[in-house]
Automatic annotation (TrEMBL):
Annotated organism of origin: Marinomonas rhizomae
Keyword Transcription regulation appears in the UniProt entry: no
Spans traversing the lipid bilayer: 12-31, 40-60, 66-86, 93-111, 117-137, 158-177, 183-205, 212-231, 237-255, 264-286
Name of the protein this chain belongs to: Uncharacterized protein
Keyword annotations of the record: Membrane, Transmembrane, Transmembrane helix
Region forming the signal peptide: none
Length: 292
């Protein structure tokens, strides 16, 4: 019995952390170095690998709410193309808001459809608005995707956004796993592991784009919103977990060419904040009965 439990734990660890991490490393290298494409495809590929392993019933076209993360990944890629190709700021943000709303509608409607179309649409619009705020914070300095300097003084700063999301996803994973949904908690862990693999390769090849975290935030916020709708995680907990993602974008947007030392300080603040939020959230969602 104990051997079976041990094997199950190892398998869960492999599916949640190891395989998504390795897949993100490989895809990031292939996309960033060999194909000269955007290395952010690495963490998306790593997440999809984790999704297919954790959610064994994954199907396309989607049949269940979790299946729609394949669509969310595609929508995240499409939103980055919109940010690059559409010149009008108003049209660009409008299209992104519509895409974000469509993603959340697909993720939440399978459960909310019993409450009516207006409720589903309201939740999708509200979640899309939060994602749009994240996008706008990244535009505080410029209205276009900017390329950050990557000299020896600020080589870490372009990685702050994915690092912040990686920390937030890792901190949220145990909260959601214990509080209501092991599946969603594992997917948050897979996202964090995939982002870790991407950050390593992105750092080594000196990726300059600072908006490659938009699809990751779309996935993260989708998982957090599903944890409330599908797993009954309290709304105040989901809001705190979501708010933890905004530390690094605010620091990046308000900072002036952050050097390596400042970037490390911001990462430390992110870790401490996420640890405190995760601890408080665990206390709020901890079940009254034994976990075993």
């Amino acid at each position: 019995m104990y051997e079976e439990a041990s094997n199950s734990t190892i398998l869960m660890l492999l599916h949640t952390a190891v395989y998504p991490f390795l897949a993100a490393l490989i895809v990031s290298i292939v996309a960033g170095k060999l194909l000269r494409a955007s290395p952010y495809l690495g963490y998306l590929g790593g997440f999809i690998v984790g999704l297919s392993l954790i959610h064994s019933g994954l199907s396309f076209p989607p049949k269940q709410a979790i299946d729609y993360y394949t669509v969310t990944v595609l929508i995240g890629i499409a939103s980055l193309y919109c940010l690059t190709l559409i010149k009008s700021p108003t049209l660009r943000l409008s299209v992104c808001f519509a895409l974000f709303g469509l993603s959340f509608y697909f993720l939440l409607n399978p459960v909310l459809k019993h409450s009516g179309f207006i409720i589903s649409l309201s939740w999708a619009a509200g979640c899309a608005f939060v994602t749009l705020i994240y996008l706008l914070i990244n535009h505080l300095k410029t209205q276009d995707i900017v390329e950050l300097d990557t000299d020896n003084e600020n080589i870490i700063s372009p990685q702050l956004l994915p690092v912040g999301l990686m920390i937030s996803a890792g901190a949220a994973a145990p909260v959601i796993s214990i509080g209501g949904s092991l599946l969603i908690g594992q997917l948050l862990g897979a996202l964090g592991a995939a982002l870790f693999g991407y950050v390593i390769i992105s750092y080594l090849i000196k990726t300059k784009k600072n908006h490659s975290s938009i699809p990751a935030f779309l996935i993260f916020s989708g998982l957090i919103s599903q944890s409330h709708i599908l797993a009954d995680i309290p709304l105040n907990v989901t809001l705190m977990l979501t708010a933890s993602c905004f530390i690094t974008p605010l620091a990046t947007a308000l900072g002036n060419k952050l050097n390596n030392k400042q970037s490390i300080y911001i990462i430390i603040v992110q870790i401490i904040t996420c640890a405190l939020i995760s601890g408080l959230s665990l206390w709020l969602v901890w079940p009254e009965s034994s976990l075993y």
